[in-house]
Amino acid sequence: MRVYGEGVEVFFDREDEVRTFECMSRHGHGPRLLGRFPTGRVEEFIHARTLSAVDLRDPEISAIIASKLREFHHLDMPGPKRVLMWDRLSLEKEINALESEFSGEDQCIGFCHNDLQYGNIMIDEETKALTIIDYEYASFNPIAFDIANHFCEMAADYHSEEPHVLDYTKYPDVDERKRFVQTYLTDFLELFVSHHCLIVPSVEGEEPDAEKIKDLMNNIEKYTLASHLVWGLWGIISEHVNDIDFDYMEYARQRLAQYWLKKPEILSCRVDDE
Fold it and tell me: Which residues form a coiled coil (predicted)?
């Protein structure tokens, strides 16, 4: 039974979230919707465990996540298929500059989870089947942003004694990121149409093009900056609307500090330069 939290609607539209969940439920993705009431809903119980921070570094599990995320991005969800991430930010001058930096590039747009931390991924230990849960922040966005956000979440351990503390030495290295992207792109072709990308099945076993791997990795690294801004601002706002015992301001400070630290480096280099 899920009871909706108070104050969190400042981050997303509850009716949009409910429609997303109902659509996911009807099409067999995520838990089934069993019932609704004014302040919440009843969902199907999933016989699986939630991932831990350590699980994200397991190569086998990481590969399964990449495949599942690719499937998620391919979902044909209702609503306008336009990027929403910039609308959700409010540092106007900095956001406009960053959006302009990315606007000239061909981008694959997909239905993104936008909060793919380990607590929102469940795994069946026997079948290794993954289920992605909690769609409050889900919307159409560049797939590179969703993957970048997932990589950034590897710096967090929300079940430690200091859950707000981030360790960026745990951010995946080039080899880890490349394996993830290779798995993500395997068996799929990219079709660019007017700076949008539809992901369609290709011949089974086809290896992804090396240039596509490199381009997606470069875009992912750029979108880590957007991830830091999104969650930095989220932390600042959460300090005023959330009563959970979590140091939101310190979390926000770390995300924004990482943004300013990495921005010059990321915007001036490419993966193949590393």
Answer: none
CATH of residue 102: 3.90.1200.10
Q: How many domains does the chain have?
A: 1
pTM of the model: 0.84
Give the chain as a DSSP string.
-EEPPSSGGGTS-HHHHHHHHHHHHHTT-SSPEEEEETTEEEEPPPSSEE--TGGGG-HHHHHHHHHHHHHHHT---SS--S--GGGG---HHHHHHHHHHHHTS---EEEE-S---GGGEEE-TTT--EEE---TT-EEEEHHHHHHHHHHGGGB-TTSSSTT-B-GGGS--HHHHHHHHHHHHTTEEEEEETTEEEEEE-STTPPPPHHHHHHHHHHHHHHHHHHHHHHHHHHHHHHHH--SSS-HHHHHHHHHHHHHHHHHHHHH--GGG-
- Residue-wise pLDDT for 174-227, tens only, equals 999 999 999 999 855 443 333 345 444 444 456 778 999 999 999 999 999 999
Total number of residues shown for the chain: 274
Which pLDDT does position 120 carry in this prediction?
96
Quote the domain boundaries for residue 12: 2-273
